[in-house]
Amino acid sequence: MTHKQRWAAISIAIYVVFVIAAVVIGFLDPSQIGLEWTIFWYFAMAGLCYYFYFKNVSYREVVYYAKQLGLHKEDLVALIPHLKETQDVPDPDRPNFLSPFAKVPISVVNQLTDQLEPRAKEQGIAPYR
Questions:
Q1: Which of 18, 22, 70, 88 could disulfide-link to 103, CB 3.0 to 4.6 Å?
Q2: How many Cα atoms are found within 13 Å in the side-chain-facing hemisphere of 120?
Q3: pLDDT digits 0-9 by tens, 44-98
Q4: DSSP code of 93?
Q5: Do the Cβ atoms of 41 and 21 come closer than 8 Å?
Q6: Does residue 66 contact residue 90 with C-beta atoms inside 8 Å?
Q7: Are 77 and 83 in contact (CB under 8 A)?
Q8: Do 86 and 66 contact (CB within 8 A), yes or no?
């Protein structure tokens, strides 16, 4: 099972647990909150699960390429010219199991991926899977 498949399975499992909890507990019962709000919350949770999947896969991709290229956190910070004080980059030497949601924004991870992927391709490093 690839990393992407693993994170997709985790995201789907989270959504299934949400749906089961909503049905069993009844906190999204259309007769109580209305059909529109019920549909909204099911779609909102699906969107959050997709974001959870995408953010963690992107985070892991940056960590993978950084490790393969021998880069450290300081090297990644140098690649992002306008990093705010409240933002951070992934630490390839000590990666978190889950991508930090607030500290490492998706925009920073995307910028790093755009820079590291071509470098890895040039050096013959296998693509992240």
A1: 88
A2: 21
A3: 999 999 999 999 999 999 999 999 999 999 999 999 988 888 888 999 999 888 7
A4: T
A5: no
A6: yes
A7: yes
A8: no
Tokens coding 89: 């980059």
Nearest CA among 47, 64, 50 for reference residue 2 = 64
How deeply is 82 buried, as exposed, middle or buried, from its count of CB atoms within 10 A (0-12, 13-18, 19+)? exposed
Residue range of the domain that includes 76: 3-122
In a domain, 127, yes or no: no
Neighbours of 16 (CB within 10 A): 11
What is the count of structural domains for the chain? Answer: 1
Is the pLDDT at 99 greater than 80? The verdict is: no
First to last CA, the chain: 9
DSSP per-residue letters across 23-91: HHH-TT-HHHH-HHHHHHHHHHHHHHHHHHHHHHHHHHHHHHHHHHHT--HHHHHHH-TT--TT-----
Distance (Å, whole) CA 109 – CA 106: 5
> Residue 50 domain-assigned?
yes
